[in-house]
Amino acid sequence: MSAQHPVTPVTDPDDVSSNSSDNPSFGEVVQRRISRRDTLLGGTAAAAAFLIGPAVGGAAAATPAAAPARPGGGRGRPGGRPLLGFTPVSTSDADAFVVPDGYRAQVLIPWGTPVRPDGPAWRKDAGNTAEEQAQQVGMNHDGMHFFPLGHGREGNRRGLLVLNHEYIDQELLFPDGPAEMTREKVAKALAAHGVSVVEIERRADGSWETVNSRLARRVTGDTPVKFSGPVRADHPELRAEGQPRGTLNNCSHGVTPWGTYLACEENWNSYFGTEDESWEPTPAQARYGVAAAGGGYDWHLADPRFDLAANPGEINRFGWIVEIDPKKPDSTPVKRTALGRFKHEGCTVTESRGRVVAYSGDDQDGDYIYKFVGSGNWRLQRALGRSPLDHGTLYVASFKDDGKGEWLPLTHGRGPLTRANGWRDQADVLLRTREAADAVGATKMDRPEWITINPRNNDVYCTLTNGSGWDAAVNPRNPNPYGHIVRWTEKRRDHTSTTFTWDIFVLAGDPAYDDQVDLDETNIFGSPDGVWFDNDGRLWIQTDISNSSQHLADKGYDNIGNNQMLAADPETGEIRRFLTGPRGSEITGATASPDQRTLFVNVQHPGEATVHWGEPSPENPRAVSNWPDFDPEGRPRSATVAITRVDGGVIGA
Ligand code: FEO
Ligand code: CA
Ligand code: CA
Ligand code: CA
């Protein structure tokens, strides 16, 4: 899938659209909305200001008349202080993790750390076996949540860190790199995927350590799983060799009100392939980007489980939301099929009027934003022994050109999703969620990534990391290499509503290349991916600039530096750069101790192949980065970083 960047060693397959439907794109919608406002307000600048609204990035942005006056800070803030209280860090090209003055960063649980301290030790030559890897923290840390253990203050010093391992870098995972795929290498790769549960404790000096815990576990690409909801494990399309096992490409995540963790299956199509020349993708498979060549893992060459022709039902066991109870180490993960099947970036769960609501972006260029609304009171359902995630309505978003929006139900028998149109039942709608969303007329988006909800007013924020722009003269970026953050307000601020209003919170990018961008050296960023609100209402933004663009002038990315994390005030629009990551990495995953005095974030794929820095190899795995160990014989490793303040204060304040 390197058509867009033929000379680069790495590409983002998500940048290639598989959506050939005629649905309007977000860019077209915004274009229409801007054009209309342009006429009303008399000029492009005024139009852009309206579109961006009163809370745009950069202090000087927005229409002065619309900007809320907030002397002494925003409403409801502790002591009326400004939400952001740290000195921004500079952009960076260093192989380092850089935090503001007054902060410190501790590397925790890098790839290969035993999930219990008495487990098998990490081997820096990548010589750990599959069996050892299955007892160690996986590769490429991503979405993450801290579940406090114990009551009150105890929960600030002890808890479970639960995190996803999105994918693997075969160059770094195996001593011989990706050369010649074998069954043992597939087994190790599967063991490095999935989810880690580790118990951590804070020491007296404020640092954190893993402890031997009965709750510590790994869920991998080989762990037995169950299916629940309208698509059951015995569905004819899920029949395959052996019982259902494993979860793969777990990107962002979710947390339910009842304390479980949701891992989300994103680019699952890339693990499957075939050499059978008679194999052809079905329309649904084509829509999901399933291809004979696979995504470069080549597992199908060594393990028939991943051969599309030999074991065709296996791939239908992927593309779901997976519920894991971290406090029940013997529990079986459950794939909750009512939430649909697509390239789930994450699953942001909230509740409204007693019902559970879950938002999820489908991260591919030209794909959609979804939400699931439970059908009844979730507490009552749980009391009756039913999962609130098994019963409800899945919707897909339509962003109208007048700043309004609508949630379109994906319910069998409604609208075009009828038997007469070839939709057999609700299971069929869910197995082919993308095609169902095409049929109802969802709005194409520039790669929807994470979604987060402002705890102060229920506004919902979604990162659109970058994309082809879908004729988005408005952005006015076509293509849109920097991405933006869209924000919406559900009617009556009720997440179960089926209509909403929307605006754009910030256009990312570099004003040196794009004068619509209202950012400066303290906060230029591109390709927003992770977004997360802390309990005080700070909006944290993490970036994932592809290594096919990072630092490159011809991509407009030479001033932005390594991937980073920023904090924003959603009311004033102020944004400050909080940290920068090492070479080749993205920053992803954010969670805090309940007292917000430790912030945990992940550094994913340090040292991966980049156009700018070069490529790692079995001979020199350190060619791009040697973070965090800086061992002259070691290799770069994804890791969680625990960030604290020297004075023990709240992070970001
Ligand atoms: Fe896994 Fe869409 O980032
Ligand atoms: Ca991501
Ligand atoms: Ca990524
Ligand atoms: Ca991304």
Describe this structure in words.
- The protein has helices at residues 26-41, 44-52, 130-133, 154-157, 170-173, 183-192, 283-287, 378-383, 426-431, 433-440, and strands at 103-108, 141-148, 158-165, 194-202, 208-210, 217-219, 226-228, 250-255, 261-265, 321-324, 334-336, 348-352, 355-361, 365-367, 369-374, 392-399, 404-409, 445-446, 448-453, 460-464, 484-490, 499-507, 528-533, 539-543, 564-568, 575-580, 586-592, 598-604, 639-645.
- With 653 residues, it is an alpha+beta fold.
- The protein has one domain.
- α1 (26-41) crosses α2.
- Residues 1-10, 30-76 and 472-476 have low confidence and may be disordered.
- The structure holds MU-OXO-diiron and calcium ion (3 copies).
- One calcium ion binds at residues 449, 465, 529, 544.
Strand content: 25-35%
Contiguous low-pLDDT stretches (5 residues minimum) are: 1-10, 30-76, 472-476
User: What is the CA-CA span between the terminal residues?
Assistant: 43 Å
What is the CA-atom radius of gyration, in angstroms? 23 Å
Q: Helix content range of the residues, please?
A: 10-25%
User: Overall 3D geometry?
Assistant: globular
Counting DSSP E segments of at least 2 residues, the number of strands comes to: 29
The small-molecule ligands in this entry are: MU-OXO-diiron, calcium ion
Query: What's the tally of helices?
Result: 10
Secondary-structure content class: alpha+beta
Number of domains: 1
Average pLDDT confidence is 90
Major beta-sheet overview: 9 strands, antiparallel
| Strand adjacency order, main sheet | 12-13-15-16-17-22-21-20-19
